[in-house]
Amino acid sequence: MHPINQTEFTEFILQGFPGSAALQKYLFVPILFIYLLTIIGNILIVAIVLHDPHLHNPMYFFLGNFSSLEVLYVTTLSPKMLADFLAKKKSICFYCCIIQAFLHFFLGATEFCLLASMSFDRYIAICKPLHYSVIMNYRLCLQLALGSWLGGLLTVILQTVLLCQLPFCGPNTINHFYCDVTPLLGLACANTDLLEQMVLVGSVLLLFSTFLLTAISYSFIIFTIMHISSSSGRQKAFSTCVAHLTVVSIQYGTVMFMYVKPNSSSSLEINKVVSVLNTIVTPLLNPFIYTLRNKDVKEALKKMACINEKMFC
């Protein structure tokens, strides 16, 4: 790779979604609605967790962190996407593009680390219930949360530094609706084999290490649940894991499809479709997944609604 940044232009052009300009304008309203609903849903979860003392435990501490991450993650991409739906020229400044790519991967990597921490919490809660409050104390929860952020940062920081040093001398059109690393590397006028391998290895190590921790945790969880004598006890224990398992399945499925494969076998057009699921749809679904079957959250929401109703009456 070239050691000096020899960029000869100051902006990239985002190709966006296929179709006419008129068609893309019709996408503005539904995407805006999804974005606002995602922000409201995740912020509401954070507010409920902070407001209700009954939810001040490790499970909801991690849920609040995860919802906060989702707000940051979707805000990294959606506002620029919405602006491009109405703009004639879908441009983004060079360093803005690098920052967006960094934040996208940093926050995404942090989410996977946090999902692994959440699976460890469920393992302790179900497999070691008598020691749960001792093991999952505030200090350990804080360390796991901060470790998740640090793990996400360490995964992407070196690749981002090397990406900034690549020379980009044209063309400057990115075949995507946001600054993704794969199409960015395709525009560099230098050998990017090393950086491509680093991105692939970093993605594989992060995804499979966190997936392995999650799989091990749930192996013990399932083994413990199967040995619970009462069917109601088994159902109650498993119900605490359903939401987390659902989110894990969606997150790992979409991201592994997009990134854990050689670039030669990838299709950017297919990746765009999968990226919509990962960057727009999944953050919207998470608040509903965690609340629809969760009695504690629904009760806390009812209490908050009653308090607000009394305040305005």
What would you note in describing this structure?
It is a single chain. Helix 2 runs parallel beside helix 10 and helix 4 runs antiparallel to helix 6 (138-164). Helix content is 76%, strand content 3%. The model is unreliable at 1-5 (pLDDT under 50). It is an all-alpha fold. The N and C termini lie far apart (66 Å). A 3-stranded mixed β-sheet has the order 2-1-3. It has 11 helices and 3 strands.
From the structure above, extract its key features.
313 residues, mainly alpha, three-stranded mixed β-sheet, 3 strands, globular
List the helices and strands and how they pair.
Layout: E1 11-14, H1 21-26, H2 28-51, H3 58-86, E2 91-93, H4 94-127, H5 132-135, H6 138-164, E3 173-174, H7 181-187, H8 193-226, H9 231-259, H10 268-292, H11 295-312
Parallel strand pairs: 1-3
Antiparallel strand pairs: 1-2
Mean pLDDT: 83
Percent helix range: over 70%
Tell me the number of strands. 3
How much strand content do the residues show? under 5%
Give the number of helices: 11
Largest sheet: 3 strands, mixed
Any low-confidence stretches, pLDDT <50, length ≥5? 1-5
Q: Quick one: overall form?
A: globular
Strand order of the largest sheet: 2-1-3
Structural category is mainly alpha
- Output the helix-strand order: EHHHEHHHEHHHHH
* Spatial separation of the terminal alpha carbons: 66 Å
- CA radius of gyration: 21 Å
